Amino acid sequence: MAASFPLDTWYAAAWSHALGAELLAREIAGLRVVLYRRADGRPVALDDACWHRLLPLSMGRLDGEDVVCGYHGLRFDPDGRCVFMPSQETVNPSAHVPARPVVERHGLVWLWPGDPALADPATVPDFGLADHPGWVGPDREYALACGFQLVVDNLLDLTHETFVHASSIGNAAVAEAPFETTHRGTEVSLTRWMTDIDPPPFFAAHLGRPGRVDRWQIIRYQAPATVTIDVGVALTGTGAPQGDRSQGITMQVMHTVTPSTEGTCRFFWKLVRDYSLDDPSLTRRLFEDSETVLAEDKRILEAQQRALEAHPDRAFYDLNIDAAAVWSRRIAEEMIAAEADGPAPTGPLA
Ligand code: FES
Ligand SMILES: [Fe+2]
Predict the structure, then answer these.
(1) What is the pLDDT of residue 2?
(2) For the residues 131-146, what does the mean pLDDT come to?
């Protein structure tokens, strides 16, 4: 069966701050790799199976810049070449494990699990504000027991906030307000304005001022699994829909999802703000508030995955609210089909 995720693309492997001098095992789009940093800090990813008897190299140890297998001591350099074999003078010149393309950008280490010859660092998703000096905030990485597309669907349809996150960021306005979806090439965007509404509890607390608000959600999807959302509220009548957000608060919520297997993924989340930059207690509060919201999503997504597996004969039905998710699925399917056909796509898909 063909995989349900593209391989010739960049996926987040780890937050930069989570990768150090220790071996880190990850499964990325069905590929098991071991990651670490070289002495100069450059990230390395090798296939996580020894050339000799396939023991995961992540069960071995790092010695300088080399990985030493934990079974019989074969030693591999950062290019994956075997540089030592026990009890023999010469090293079989073909002994190696594949090294995978990795790039560090926007505070994340990205890995290309497909054909290394196609790995172009210029195509790493734009996660720009994640490491912008004018924006700060908490980040998190979650292992989820659901396919990556379910998470993308969830992020592209925020009407679920009304029903899943009623106590924090949801209110009736999200499910009632109209929205506009556009798509271009491998990107989809969705914009929703909710004007003259009572702020939901999360935003009322963070705005810190009474009054009705205009609220916005501007979502950008970059195929196959990156979703960045510009969100905020401003006091009604102060011009936010026309571009003046000075009487409000803005946050950017960045998400990228890495399929591990068909039914599991890793979810990277970061929420940044452009105000109160030197207030670690606010960062902590945003982290704690968001933990509750993300736990609510996790509960739903994992139950949805179990239901999918229990009902393989059942199909999904699409509503108006699913427009952006339908586009994202279509783009991902075209990427997968293009890989099956041979050369990578060269032009716009839509
Ligand atoms: S399995 Fe790695 S050295 Fe034998
Ligand atoms: Fe949610």
Answers:
(1) 59
(2) 95
Q: What is the span of the domain harbouring residue 275? A: 128-341
Pocket test for ligand 1, best of 72, 85, 96 (most atoms within 8 A of CB): 72
Residues 159 and 274 in one domain: yes
pTM exceeds 0.90, yes or no: yes
pLDDT of 1 strictly over 60 = no
CA nearest ligand 1 atom 3, residue: 72
Residue 349 has pLDDT above 60, yes or no: no
Q: Is residue 345 reached through a cis peptide bond, with omega within 30 degrees of 0 on the bond before it?
A: no
> Per the domain annotation, does 5 fall within a domain?
no
287 phi, psi to nearest 5 deg? -60, -50
Question: Where do runs of H (alpha helix) occur along 27-168?
Answer: 148-156, 160-164
- For residue 97, give the amino acid letter: V
CATH number at residue 57: 2.102.10.10
Do 107 and 197 lie in a common domain?
no
Locate all alpha helices (DSSP H) within 69-139, ordered by sequence: none
Q: Which residues contact 323 (CB under 8 A, 6 or more apart)?
A: 181, 190
User: Is 209 a pocket residue for ligand 1 (Cβ < 6 Å)?
Assistant: no
